[in-house]
Amino acid sequence: MKIRTKLTLGVGLLFMLITLLTYVGAKSINALKNDTDNILVANYNTLEYSRNILMALDELVTDKSAMNKIEENLLKQESNITEIGEREATQQLRQHFTILKINNFDRTTHFIIRKDIAEIMRLNMESIQRKSNVAKQTAASATIWIALSGTLCFVIAFTLLINLPGNIASPIRKLTESIKRIAANDYSQRVYFQDHSEFGELARSFNRMAEKLEEYNNSNLSQLLFEKRRIETLINNMHDPVIGLDENKKIIFVNNQALKVIGLKPEQLINQQAQNVSLINDLIRSLVKDLIMPESIVIEDKKKPVKIFADNKESYFEKDIIDIAFVPTGEKELQHIGHVIILKNITPFKELDFARTNFIATISHELKTPISSIKMSIQLLEKQQTGTINEEQKQLIDSIKEDSQRLLKITSELLNLSQVETGNIQLNIQKSTPYQILKFATEAVKVQAEQKQIKILSEIDENLPLVKADTEKTAWVLINFLTNAINYSPEQSKINIRISLQDQLVNFSVSDQGKGIEKRYKDKIFDKYFQVPGSVKTGTGLGLAISKEFIEAQNGTIGVESEIGMGSTFYFKLGIVS
Ligand code: ADP
Question: What is the atom index within ligand 1 of the atom nearest the CA of 545?
Fold first, then answer.
């Protein structure tokens, strides 16, 4: 129970007892007062009237007017009848007084009246005696009640007096003792209070404090230094560069590998604010920009490996920023204490990647010539001059033609990709007319569209400005959009090309009536080799990835709007010639 509640209950109980005692006392005094009032009103007055009548009787011998006095007191007595038998006695007195009025010297009547009065007085005296007994009883029972409630009050007050101060003081004493012992370096001290009072809470806080003090005391300095050196050696021996920052972005450690790639001395880094160092060092700037800049600005760069030129060679690193947080002893909340930046050396993988890209480039380049010659040979074969061919042979030639077309597409896409991956896109940016790009693209896919009886409608704004673009590559992208639209649309459907001016950019869009693309794949389809699961695998999954690279290399943007069952609209936007 809380101390506050205990005190409230204790004082409340005392207050209740005082009220009870007052009530019992007041009630008893009131009962006694009622008893005496009763005697006074009912009997004392009657005795007074009777005495007055007796005195008047004596005066009657000499003074006749005393008759009135008797009448007056008799009337008063008649209206103050309170005892059993008093009414009859008073009636008799009235009768005898009437006789006395006729003959006021009749001695016998005098005597009878005196007797009547004596009877009335006797009745009242007896009553006084009785009522006095009742009053005595009332007083006795009042004494008992007051004594009982007084004893009860005493017992309760005494119990409170004995227990309450002890109840409050003893935990304080225990705590004081424990604090004194902690002050004397005995950190094993703990206090336990079972109840849920304020002392329980105090004890928990005290124990938490003692626990922390014990922990600090146990971790002695040399042990700490040894552990620190061990961790430092461990970090220094790591093959990957590691940089540690505290919660205020101050650099607290940098291992040897990191020093090598950053190219600064330890004193230029340790205990310096990362923001300040980033002003003089590009690498630090690119490493900590994620921590300094708001999330949205850096999202795109996150995946890109960091290229660093150190030790006379180019190396590639993958940046990993780890948030360091822990729960301090005795607390529940996680506390953030800084970041560790680890650079994973991915140069060997990158080299392998380059080798693969080069291999692909060489292969696709080497394949292009024989495939083209196959195509040419087929064209020659198709001509009648080389001899007549039967229907079966014609079908075989058609199939070879289709396959070589496909092979040519794949090799050219692979070649494009290797250019993109090696960063060797040769852009030939000119002032291009959107109409020319459109014409070039629609011509290229005409036959393909006709085969599926698909209608390509184009809508182009009048007086469109020239765009800054590589006509060939942009047309390639548009052709890729159109080929996809044809491939992923049902037969006899329509494809709409729209070229319009939007916010100083020319927007090329291709809308189809195909099955559309699920929201979750919208970004992924621009990744290399990605093909929407379940869709017809006609190509290589490279077309959109290359398109993205082509458009972004021209400072344009590319995207798709699509809903399942509603078709898709692929678009790209390019800047105009100002
Ligand atoms: P692919 O050679 O497979 O067509 P792309 O990079 O051009 O490669 O396209 C990637 C994937 O995006 C395709 O495999 C297909 O699943 C999906 N896709 C592209 N264009 C459309 C479209 N117009 N309608 C529906 N899905 C499409």
Answer: 6
Contact (Cβ atoms closer than 8 angstroms) between residue 294 and residue 345? no
414 lines ligand 1 (CB under 6 A): no
Q: Which residue from 522, 544, 549, 560 has its CB within 8 A of the most atoms of ligand 1, so it is best to mutate?
A: 544
- The CA distances from residue 133 to 25, 81, 126, 240, 285, in Å, are 20, 21, 11, 111, 109
CB contact at 8 A, 467 and 574: yes
Backbone angles phi, psi at 342, to 5 degrees: -115, 130
Q: Contact, 156 vs 164, CB < 8 A? A: no
Structure tokens that stand for 159 in this block: 């119990």
- Answer whether 544 contacts ligand 1 (Cβ < 6 A): yes
Outline where DSSP puts E strands in 213-334. 242-246, 251-254, 306-310, 313-326
Distance CA 101, CA 168 (A): 87
CB contact at 8 A, 1 and 195: yes
Nearest Cα residue to 553 out of 531, 530, 574, 526:
574
CA distances to 208, 371, 440 from 192, rounded to whole Å, are 12, 88, 88
Does any ligand 1 atom lie closer than 6 A to the CB of residue 532?
Answer: yes
Q: Are 508 and 459 in contact (CB under 8 A)?
A: no
Pairing of strands 242-246, 306-310: unpaired
Work out the angle between the directed axes of helices 107-183 and 86-102 (0-180°, nearest 10): 150
Cα separation, 227 vs 464, whole angstroms: 71
Q: Which pair of structure tokens corresponds to residue 348?
A: 């060997």
Residue nearest to atom 21 of ligand 1 (CA): 484
pLDDT above 90: residue 405: no
Q: How far is CA 119 from the centre of its chain?
A: 96
**Nearest alpha-carbon partner for 273 in 301, 295, 250, 290:** 250
Q: What are phi and psi of 560, to 5 degrees?
A: -140, 145
Listed in order, strand segments (DSSP E) in 393-481 are 430-432, 455-460, 467-469
User: pLDDT, tens digit, for every residue of 280-330?
Assistant: 888 888 888 878 775 544 444 456 788 888 777 888 888 889 999 988 877
Kindly report, residue by residue over 433-480, the tens digit of the pLDDT.
Answer: 999 999 999 999 999 999 999 999 999 998 899 999 999 999 999 999
455 Cα–ligand 1 center, Å: 19
